[in-house]
Specification:
Length: about 775
């Protein structure tokens, strides 16, 4: 976006081809000889809303002003900064843990009331009233969630993991981590899960943790009058990135009670940059979450949390089952991995198609988004209540330790419409909370609890409903639908092989979940640890590793992971950790866009104003020219936001001279601190009078004098890897031979996008 000469407008962008304007008002030739325009899209889908996107400044800016600030810092201030970082990690852990507990408490109580009411009406043989109550409550909850998402914070729709992943890759979008998004993510997730949708609260918890971290890191929100001055030390993208990584890890830890899994999830799936210091801080954050949840669960065991018992915060304790496997079991596990990979890749393919269809509906406005939510809610309610009527009742097993049939909300033996002493096994799964359904599937207490036909019907239902539900305008996670489908498929395989295998059906269900997660998410280490922490069974580690590796390897032959697909479908310009092979056929100078607009070290105010108005560039090269130097020389890069702050201060001179010393005395580094997206001073706010346009301003104090540069003949693949690993926003391309202008162009994120490169060179062999 930064290298294009374009102006964002409603409905697209207007492309301009103006060159820089010299001090006499004449058009001067751009330094770049190739007038390529980068036509990559500058908008993307965030949640269910289409909005402009912008790159983040993860690079350390080294200009005179910031250097002076670093030199003036005392040891006490450095200690305060480090202490505050750990304090923020503690606050993120505490806040995310409390929100995670509140989510589960609310879901269990709301869903519990719904199921109790339905059960009581069915006990009285009022089946139609029971359906109306069940579907009506679901519809009200779903509509509330849809209205919140459609009208207040469209960015809160969906899982949020693709958006967090894109942010940590260097992509910012309006409201992606805003307080309104946080509010809707929390309450929309509660309402959506309690409404019976086949969605999870685990993905939204990752987004919630990231929003909490962002809110704390920027010192609150001025818009909502929630500000804390002592937290305003991290007004730069680099520190915020670290805090949001901690928040994402805390979200996983709060959702699954898996602190180590949360750290590994952030490392493997979400974060694009990692270092040892961040590992320690993230681990500390997730440990705090684990302690908070454990303390609150112990409090709830006393019965003071309503219908919330030990459930909700899912813990599938199957350590009573000790895996003892033979060669037949290993062949069965291999088969589960292969089929899980195929089904997972098919799931991703269908989710992608459904999301593209829903995006066309969502574009029509918030009303259509709510209507779509209502339709899916009614369909889900009809399936959950209607399908169990087509199955026969099963006699209760003898010598059970639990009640059969279960009259209350939870339990594995729902009576539904059955006579005394019988239960409906399909209703026990489908007419239950998602957490309780997973517990029942992973249970090994009674291997004959669910019939093969029941497991098959439930698998098809969860597989289909999970696909059509993801993408509607509610906060929705993919973990739980995938675990439900995988567990039912795994238990189905276990039931078929029960006479040949030493493993019980509960362990097969766990392996089925792992295979399906590996086939959709394409994660290995983090999923393995999360599932082990969930089930509290370390003895399953070898089989879990085997099935995850097989399912991921099989699925990778068909398509990418579900989050990678969604990132691409949403139009987010994500930079992969590796360069595509065809990039080795090009050099950096082949793809730079133009025309390039540069400034002199001491530039005319009018030239800067014209350039800022005509372009949407966020970075401009600064070139020192005579009389300050004998020959033109690249001084560095100046940011658009810094220019606007400098112009607002009106420290102009009538003649062309250096004023760096005066500027360093007047300005502080905090004056140029990064504000939230769209919250800093804008070009329209400047009060530049006509007489100011002919005056000069010294750009040296705010120019980053050590920008990263590559020679124009460097392989584009090498440049792409350097750009991504260093977390850059601008990469200067300099000439190889002397005598040319000091800079050829600036590479930005969009210059590495396949659409731009293949548009310039359509005949290039992508597989070479």
């Amino acid at each position: 976006m930064e290298a294009n000469v374009d102006i964002e407008c409603e409905g697209g962008k207007i492309e301009r081809n103006e060159s820089a304007i010299d001090e006499r008002g004449m058009i001067r030739q751009p330094l770049l000889s190739k007038n390529r325009i980068n036509t990559s899209s500058q908008i993307a889908i965030v949640g269910s809303n289409v909005c402009p996107i912008e790159s983040l400044d993860y690079e350390i800016i080294e200009n005179d002003l910031f250097k002076q600030d670093w030199r003036s810092r005392k040891k006490v201030q450095i200690l305060q900064y480090v202490t505050l970082k750990w304090t923020l990690a503690l606050l993120i852990g505490l806040s995310t843990g409390l929100v995670g507990f509140f989510n589960n408490l609310a879901v269990e109580n709301i869903a519990g009331f719904k199921f109790l009411l339905t059960s009581q009406l069915m006990l009285q043989q009022k089946f139609y009233q029971a359906f109306l109550a069940f579907a009506g409550i679901n519809l009200v909850l779903a509509t509330c969630a849809g209205v919140l998402c459609a009208y207040i914070a469209p960015a809160a729709a969906g899982s949020g993991i693709p958006e967090v992943k894109a942010y940590l890759n260097g992509i910012d979008a309006h409201s992606i981590l805003a307080p309104s998004t946080l509010f809707v993510k929390i309450f929309g997730s509660i309402l959506g899960v309690a409404a019976g949708f086949v969605v999870g609260k685990e993905g939204p918890m990752v987004h919630t943790g990231a929003c909490i971290a962002n809110l704390l890191g920027q010192g609150g929100s001025r818009k909502y009058h929630l500000t804390w001055k002592w937290l305003r030390y991290f007004k730069n993208d680099r520190d915020r990135r670290d805090l949001i990584t901690c928040g994402a890890a805390a979200g996983v830890a709060a959702a699954f009670r898996a602190p180590v899994g949360g750290v590994l999830f952030a490392l493997e799936e979400v974060a694009s940059w990692w270092r040892s210091a961040l590992l320690w801080r993230t681990f500390f954050t997730t440990a705090v979450v684990a302690v908070v949840l454990k303390s609150l669960i112990e409090f709830c065991r006393s019965g003071k949390c309503g219908l919330f018992g030990e459930g909700g915060l899912i813990m599938f304790d199957i350590n009573s089952s000790k895996p003892d496997y033979n060669m037949v079991d290993l062949l069965a596990v291999t088969l589960i991995g292969v089929v899980g990979g195929i089904l997972g890749s098919l799931y991703n393919y269908l989710v992608d198609k459904v999301l593209r269809t829903y995006s066309m509906i969502n574009e029509k406005g918030p009303t259509f988004r709510v209507i779509l939510v209502v339709i899916i809610s009614l369909l889900t309610s009809c399936c959950a209540y209607g399908i169990p009527w087509f199955t026969n009742c099963v006699p209760c097993p003898i010598d059970l330790e639990v009640e059969c049939p279960t009259v209350g909300r939870s339990g594995s033996y729902k009576f539904f419409q059955c006579p005394p002493g019988h239960y409906n096994d399909l209703a026990s799964l489908i007419l239950n909370t998602n957490d309780d359904a997973i517990r029942s599937l992973l249970s090994s207490t009674n291997g004959d609890e669910f019939r093969i036909t029941t497991l098959l019907v439930f698998f098809i239902s969860m597989y289909s409903l999970g696909i059509i539900t993801y993408g509607i305008a509610i906060p929705s996670g993919l973990f739980i639908p995938v675990i439900l489908a995988g567990a039912s498929y795994g238990r189905l395989v276990g039931s078929l092989l029960v006479s040949f295998s030493n493993l019980n059906v509960g362990l097969f269900a766990l392996l089925g979940s792992a295979s399906f997660l590996g086939g959709t998410m394409r994660m290995t280490v983090s999923l393995c640890v999360i599932l082990l922490e969930l089930t509290n069974n370390l003895l399953m580690l070898p089989l879990m590793m085997l099935v995850l590796l097989i399912s991921k390897s099989v699925a990778d032959n068909f398509n990418k992971g579900v989050y990678d697909q969604i990132v691409k479908m949403k139009g987010l310009p994500f930079l992969e950790s590796h360069a595509e092979p065809y990039l080795r056929q090009l050099v950096a100078g082949d793809v730079v866009s133009g025309p390039l607009i540069s400034f002199s070290g001491v530039e005319k105010v009018g030239n800067i104003m014209h350039s800022l108005r005509l372009t949407s560039h966020n970075g401009f090269p600064v070139i020192d020219e005579p009389p300050f130097l004998e020959a033109p020389e690249l001084c560095g890069v100046v940011l658009r936001s810094h220019l606007i702050v400098l112009l607002k201060g009106k420290m102009f001179t009538k003649d062309r001279r250096l004023t760096g010393t005066e500027m360093l005395q007047r300005y502080r580094a905090s004056d140029f601190a990064k504000a939230g997206l769209g919250k800093g001073p804008k070009l329209e706010d400047l009060d530049i009078k006509p007489e100011d346009m002919d005056m000069y301003i010294d750009l040296h104090p705010i120019t980053n004098t050590s920008p990263y540069t590559v020679v124009e003949t460097m392989s584009l693949a090498k440049a792409a890897v350097a750009f991504r690993q260093l977390g850059l926003r601008h990469l200067c391309v300099v000439p190889k031979t002397p005598g040319k202008p000091p800079i050829v162009g600036i590479l930005t994120r969009h210059d590495f996008m396949p659409d731009h490169i293949l548009g310039l060179y359509p005949g290039i062999d992508q597989h070479k």
